[in-house]
Predict the structure.
Amino acid sequence: MNLIMNYENLSSPADIRAYLAGTCKVDLQVSSEQRYTWIGGTLKRTGYFKLRKKDKAPVLEYMLKLTGYCRQHLTKLIAQYRKNKWIGKEYPKRNSFERFYTREDVLLLAATDAAHGTLSGAATKKLFERAYLVFDDLQYERLSKISVSHIYNLRGSTTYTRRRTVFKHTNPTPVKIGERKKPFPNNQPGFIRIDTVHQGDRDGEKGVYHINAVDEVTQFEIVSSVEKISENWLIPVLENIIQSFPFRIINCHADNGSEYINHDVARLLNKLNVELTKTRPRHSNDNALAESKNGSIIRKHLGYMHIPQKWAPKINQFNRQYLNPYLNYHRPCFFVERTTDAKGKEKKIYKYKNMMTPYDKLKSLSDAKQYLKPGITFAALDKEASRYTDLEAAKLMQNARKKLYSEIFSN
């Protein structure tokens, strides 16, 4: 048998007391779906919040009896009704922020990463600043003010991932390099670190070799490719590398490999008045700069796949015309700042404010003109640096590489 109860007439504490006295042995409850609405209606109907304390007691007992709630829970619901004039489930308020960077900004980030090969957040921010401040590209105005950490947030956005998916290769195992002496350039350019990167074997056939030379102070970098690393092939390339730097080379630091540590190379360097050094035993960090550039430059832009040796001249032409200018005039690099604590321990710090391109680093040196080779001026170098924007240089390099590799791997 279903009973239909009418609670509308119970609007005073006296009526509720009489009701409770008559139903003390009857178990009645409001359905769970209607409890919140019923409690709100009862509080409003009885004028609960204006009642005296002794008159509130029967109303509270009445609601406890018909809802089946405990006193603590019912007290919370009454407090909620008093504050909001309604009873229901409250959800936590979440902070929302106004969107500052637009979809076009995210697409610009994706295009920049595609052109430059997804540099670090700090290097990418530097490219945005240079695009806006140096090359007056107004579409980079907002991105020039972005924080480094938020660049990674945008890279994880749906807009970015739909436009560009990045596959990370396995990091190569570094190769030990060296001479029995560690060079100390004392903030003077001309101390280069040099290493060889092999483009792999296939069916017993050797691939192209890349010679990577990096100046320790400015990170000015020259990449050359050669078919073989025997003396007949390496000596002309090594001489060309030394001539390609705009400043005089004082020291050449190599690994213990026989391609550099031999009489022919020593004779060449001696003729050019360049000191030859090699990595010390148990000091694998002596040539860390060249090793790091092998991964971040050579492997990133020239890849891991086997390339037959016959393509070395064309790859070398690509290096001279596109890769080397991009690396030296348009790709920002971190530069170390050394501090020494009270105990004499040296600490290396890489600050964002010290990030710049190798060419900008060269110009920032004290009395930089004294290091330039005869016949080379900063006016001519400035003209080369401003010939293209950073993005244009990166795209030219990427397009030239695609064209070159399509020719190599289509045969």
